[in-house]
Amino acid sequence: MRIQTGNPVSGDDFYKRQHLIARIWDLIESGNHVLIAAPRRVGKTSLMYYLKDNPKKNFSFLFLDTESINNENEFFRRVVNKVLQTDFIKGSQKVFSFLEKHKPTIKKVGPDGVEFGVREDHDYLDMLSRILKATACAEKKLVIMLDEFPETLENIIDDEGENEGRHFLQSNRELRHDRELCNNVQFIYTGSIGLENVVSKLNAIQTINDLTRLKIPPLQTEEANEMIYMLKTNLPFELSKSLIGYMLEKIEWLIPFYIQLALQELKFLYRDEKPKSITKSIIDRAFDRMLEQRNHFENWHTRLRKALKASNDYNFVKELLNIASEKDTITSNEIFNLAVKYKLEDIYKDLVGSLIYDGYINNEEDNHVYRYNSPILRMWWRKNVAN
Ligand SMILES: Nc1ncnc2c1ncn2[C@@H]1O[C@H](COP(=O)(O)OP(=O)(O)O)[C@@H](O)[C@H]1O
Ligand SMILES: [Mg+2]
Predict the structure, then answer these.
(1) How far apart are CA 181 and CA 131, in angstroms?
(2) Fewer Cβ neighbours under 10 Å: the N or C end of the chain?
């Protein structure tokens, strides 16, 4: 297992989170449509890559990152093209004759077969549903995994308006509930912004209430230890059990990404300074260096700027996070006072709710006290945003 800190990981670089994998298979095998809920960088995309590369017998997975898509027909065109590449339809005589009738006019036949190009005007939702139905008796089940789906919804709302956004959600729902499909086709949706947050602004929660939520929790301490143990084989120095414990305590919110980042920084520091052995103070310095890497954390800040279009909402949230970064915690009273200051008494709970959902803060230990999930993000915020 190699240290990876940028893209989603796959193959040997993926630490197999047994509990999580078993959980998602339970949901898939009992026929659920799933909404994976987790903040950015928690490992959603890597998990989907894993499913795609390691399907159980009789399952076929399709993965599509929909982030750049901004209209409904385009969305379904991209899904159609992906479906045409899967072994779910390969060899299906019915699909073949369907395609004979609906040949793409501008033919694009790549290594993966037929593709419908941008300029071809079809009703792709209808086409998708027909292609899927043509294979509905196949022994395989198809799981369609859609990454960054809430981004697509936001794009559609921004470019075409809220009604189109609702329509898009409705179309997805109809597809999930089509009686001829529901035994053979399942969907997994995910994305780094909360789908519920976007959908509830549209008053359209009923369009997604059939999805089963799966949370991705941080690693358990034993899992984190095991992951470090596997990564360590590629490091040029020893790390004792107690030093690993020290690192994990500093990381606290044990998501694989922070473990990777910390080890990477330690590796760089070791290379630069060639110390005889690793000590706590070297680990401390590796963490300091890690915080200097703006690009790892900047997104937590810019994302808020983009998501909170009203600058007053943004200022409220920023001040809340500034305070929590400086004092370690912020109480519900203090938050209420802030809401009064910004005249946001009506909606501040929603804003706090999205901060929790998006993985900034939690109030798990004490209902009235909020703190950052990650001390690393807290320190970064204090240094780079609050001051
Ligand atoms: N199972 C895993 N094993 C090893 N590293 C992981 C794993 N899951 C996530 N990571 C680390 O987290 C980073 C982000 O993972 P990614 O799947 O892109 O998260 P998300 O899609 O939730 O933003 C990866 O670059 C990698 O460093
Ligand atoms: Mg991702």
Answers:
(1) 10
(2) C
Cβ atoms of 168 and 72 closer than 8 Å: yes
Amino acid letter at 92? S
Asked if residue 338 has pLDDT above 60, the reply is yes
The helix (run of H) or strand (run of E) holding residue 65 is strand 59-65
How far is the centre of ligand 1, averaged over its atoms, from the C-alpha of 324 (Å)? 26
The reported pTM is 0.90
Phi/psi-derived region of residue 308, left when phi > 0, alpha when psi is between -120 and 50, beta in every other case: beta
**CA–centroid distance, residue 257 to ligand 1 (Å):** 6
Concatenated DSSP letters for 7-56? SPP-GGGS---HHHHHHHHHHHHTT--EEEE--TTSSHHHHHHHHHHSPP
Ligand 1 atom nearest the C-alpha of 16 is 1
Average pLDDT rounded to a whole number, residues 14-24: 96
In this structure, which residues have their CB less than 5 angstroms from ion ligand 2?
45
Write out the two tokens for 66: 């929909």
User: What are the phi and psi torsion angles at 61 (to 5°)?
Assistant: -115, 145
- In angstroms, the CA 227 to CA 263 distance is 11
Residue 99: pLDDT band (50, 70, 90) is confident
Q: Quick check: 230 and 15 in contact, CB under 8 A?
A: yes
| Rounded Cα gap, residues 171 and 76, in angstroms | 10
